[in-house]
Amino acid sequence: MDLTLQNSSQLKRTYKIIGFYIIGLLCLGLFIYMDNSQELDDFLKKADRVRTDWGFGFYSIVGLIKMASLISGVAIPLILTIMLIRQKLKKNAL
Description:
There is one protein chain. By secondary structure, the protein is mainly alpha-helical. The protein has helices spanning 2-36, 38-50, 52-93. The chain has one domain. Helices cover 96% and strands 0% of the residues. The longest helix has 42 residues, at 52-93. The protein is elongated.
């Protein structure tokens, strides 16, 4: 009974770790798409021509989303990897 409970909790933990890595990759993918998107660039230029305050607002929002996706896309896998390495070293030290 304990073995199945331990395996199910380990499996849930593994799925969570994989899920966080996937979220990190999606964030990096979003950043790359937004950074290289010609359609987004054209839209921002059109919005800036219509009204300057709209253009500034869109540039600000897009910049914040790009920075947030870049930081989270790098930080999530980095933190997970460090935590997994530390845990592995603790188990090996015992």
